[in-house]
Backbone:
């Protein structure tokens, strides 16, 4: 008789730092593991609610922090893999599990005896003399209950729970549709003449993609390593238009249509906020961020848009004039802009991606980023082939400090595949916290979509991808260098408009000649990148800065437009977005095409009424990096001050206080305009 198999998701890992046992986990393990973990977590919660002892910080607030540990571990694994390595079965499990998790969460927030205990501790807050971190945990726990509907009348509490469950499914469906639509389209070419203008590396990658699908010729997809070079270099305007239209009409109509899903998400969010007494979802969401109020965000976006729009329009006029001078006839359309701006950039700065890519092989860039973390924070990265991974492309490193203290496990997942969504992100399988008196260090994951190596060429990064790696590594440092007792307050568990500060700060090193000269060598000759190339990179840094700024502000504007209404807009999705952005549009709007139905950040991610935070954090990082420049970009004491006062403290202190602890003052708002040359 076969022994009954033990579900590996329901037992503690014995691997270093409790690493997930990916080599033992089967897809069929997830659903039963979730059900059992929810049962265990529910028992944890009920034990707190039924405790006959008087409510205290320890037996109520700290006990809640520790409850559901198995569920947190399983969720950390499963939902990260639904982003990075999913399949139809995983997607089906996610649809089954999401309402169960929402029901579990609502069973906590709407548990009246439990809330009574939390309220009792909250009301004696002043007499508890808690330290800063404990006091913050109490505050966040109280707000979690109140903002989660615990103070509502019974009928409204039940309605709030139903809305939450439907919303969790709608946001999940939105993301699944975007991934499915991205994978559904291919541009299949069999005539070499159709490849005119494309660099050899792009052709080679397209041929490898075709071969992986059992085809001859070349296959281009909507994944960025394929899509972006085609738009930038292809001489075939008709094919650029085909690819652009496919990319920008994802989820508008067809089997993966998101337009009605989007409208339902907006309606659900709005109704939830109004049940809690907020006029709009933005009012609800921003209460917990540095900006606090929608009007502050709208004024912030306007304050940046006003000085950015005139130079952005001049930049577009310059590119259009350049195109006309070089034989282009007609109106410059969105599928033309990357192509002609790249030609202009190459002519003006004698600089393009193909010139630079040989100096940025992925392995060398990774080594340089690791070395930078060593110089700044004393970190060391040791490869661990003994720790299992969820896909053969993934690599694991044990991270330690200069004293040999183990800080984290770092998982690196660089290359695109059909099972991975587009873009780049940092996440965690486990965050820092203490349990039963023992510290549990983070398990951090960094995911990108860089071009895969081929049989003859290593993975070569564009300069933009170099900055992307530094950006996500900044998030990773935020997680790996975390200190603190409470998991919900450590690492990147900070307010949304603060979380991008460490990541965007790290991008600045990519433009520092002193840093580039340490690693940028030609992958074939071994020769260091010429100083002239570095000078050109620095000179071109603010090329199309106004255009890029306005484009980011557009994302923030449409996000706020969707979430500042007192009801879902009457007009359809396409009309609403185009009407919102028409006054500041830089290129002709294309009938029937908008980006909202594929805007994962705000409709499937955590950036609803928060996309402005990228620009908000850019103001912070511009001001912060000015300080690093004063002290020295490799100054260990400066980095240690940043680590001690801000980077390691997570959300244990309000973000504006953390920034003042680091900088000694509030940020200078004009720092970003000065950095971009737009002031």
Residues:
């Amino acid at each position: 008789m076969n022994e009954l198999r033990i579900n590996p998701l329901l037992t503690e890992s014995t691997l270093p730092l409790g690493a997930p046992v990916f080599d033992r986990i089967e897809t069929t393990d997830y659903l039963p593991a979730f059900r059992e973990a929810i049962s265990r977590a529910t028992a944890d919660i009920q034990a707190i609610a039924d405790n006959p002892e008087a409510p205290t910080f320890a037996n109520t607030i700290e006990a809640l922090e520790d409850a559901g540990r198995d569920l947190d571990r399983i969720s950390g694994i499963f939902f990260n893999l639904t982003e990075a390595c999913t399949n139809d079965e995983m997607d089906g499990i996610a649809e089954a599990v999401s309402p169960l998790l929402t029901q579990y969460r609502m069973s906590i927030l709407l548990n009246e005896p439990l809330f009574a205990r939390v309220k009792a501790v909250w009301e004696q807050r002043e007499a508890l003399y808690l330290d800063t971190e404990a006091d913050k945990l109490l505050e966040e726990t109280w707000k979690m209950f109140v903002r989660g509907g615990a103070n509502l009348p019974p009928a409204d509490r039940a309605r709030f729970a139903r809305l939450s469950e439907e919303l969790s499914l709608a946001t999940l469906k939105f993301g699944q549709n975007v991934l499915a639509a991205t994978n559904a389209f291919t541009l299949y070419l069999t005539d070499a003449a159709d490849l005119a203008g494309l660099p050899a590396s792009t052709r080679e990658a397209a041929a490898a993609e075709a071969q992986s699908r059992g085809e001859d010729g070349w296959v281009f997809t909507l994944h960025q390593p394929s899509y972006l070079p085609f738009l930038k270099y292809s001489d075939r305007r008709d094919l650029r238009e085909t690819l652009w239209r496919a990319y920008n009409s994802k989820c508008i109509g067809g089997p993966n249509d998101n337009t009605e899903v989007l409208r339902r998400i907006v309606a659900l969010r709005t109704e939830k906020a109004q049940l809690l007494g907020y006029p709009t979802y933005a009012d609800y969401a921003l209460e917990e961020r540095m900006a606090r109020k929608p009007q502050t965000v709208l004024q912030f976006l306007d304050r940046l848009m006003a000085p950015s729009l005139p130079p952005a329009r001049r930049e577009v006029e310059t590119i259009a004039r350049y195109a006309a001078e070089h034989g282009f006839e007609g109106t410059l359309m969105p599928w033309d802009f990357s192509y002609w701006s790249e030609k202009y950039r190459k002519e003006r700065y004698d600089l393009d991606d193909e010139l630079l890519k040989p100096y940025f092989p992925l392995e060398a860039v990774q080594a340089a980023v690791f070395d930078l973390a060593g110089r700044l924070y004393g970190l060391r990265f040791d490869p661990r082939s003994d720790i299992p991974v969820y896909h053969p492309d993934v690599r694991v490193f044990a991270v330690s400090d200069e004293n040999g203290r183990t800080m984290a496990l770092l998982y690196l997942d660089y290359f695109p595949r059909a099972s991975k969504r587009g873009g780049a992100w940092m996440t965690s399988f486990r965050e820092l916290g203490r349990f039963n008196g023992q510290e549990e260090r983070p398990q951090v994951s960094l995911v990108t979509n860089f071009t895969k190596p081929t049989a003859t060429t290593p993975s070569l990064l564009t300069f933009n991808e170099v900055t992307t790696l530094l950006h996500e590594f900044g998030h990773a440092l935020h997680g790996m260098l975390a200190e603190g007792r409470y998991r919900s307050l450590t690492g990147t568990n900070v307010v949304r408009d603060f979380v991008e500060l460490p990541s965007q700060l790290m991008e600045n090193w990519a433009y520092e000649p002193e840093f580039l000269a340490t690693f940028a060598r030609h992958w074939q000759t071994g020769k260091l990148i010429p100083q002239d190339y570095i000078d050109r990179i620095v000179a071109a840094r603010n090329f199309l800065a106004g255009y890029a700024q306005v484009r980011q502000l557009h994302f923030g504007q449409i996000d706020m437009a969707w979430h500042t209404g007192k009801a879902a807009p009457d007009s359809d999705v396409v009309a609403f977005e185009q009407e919102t952005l028409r006054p500041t549009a830089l290129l002709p709007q294309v009938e029937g095409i908008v980006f909202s139905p594929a805007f994962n950040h705000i409709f499937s991610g955590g950036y609803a009424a928060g996309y402005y935070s990228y620009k908000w954090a850019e103001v912070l990082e511009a001001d912060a990096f000015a300080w690093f420049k004063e002290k020295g970009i490799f100054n260990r004491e400066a980095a240690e001050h940043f680590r001690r006062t801000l980077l390691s403290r997570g959300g244990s202190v309000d973000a504006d206080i953390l920034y003042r602890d680091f900088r000694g003052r509030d940020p200078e708002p004009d720092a970003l305009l000065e950095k971009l040359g737009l002031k």
Q: What stands out?
A: The beta strands are 186-189, 218-221, 380-383, 395-400, 406-413, 425-430, 433-435, 438-440, 443-447.
